[in-house]
Amino acid sequence: MEIYIARDGNRLGSFPLDEVRRQLASGQLTPNDLAWTQGARDWVPLVSFPPLQSNQYPPAVDYNGPRQPEQTSGLAIASLVCGILSLPFFCPFIASIPAIICGHLARSNIRNSGGRFGGGGMALAGLIMGYLGIALLGCALLAGLGLPIFNEVRLKSNETKSLADARLIAVACRRYATDHQGRFPAKLDELVPKYLPDRSPFSSPLSPGEKLAYEYFGGAENDPPDQVLLMSTFKDRHEKRIIVHVDGSGLIANPPADLPESLSQ
Question: Of 257, 254, 182, 170, which Cα lies nearest the Cα of 216?
Answer without folding.
Answer: 170
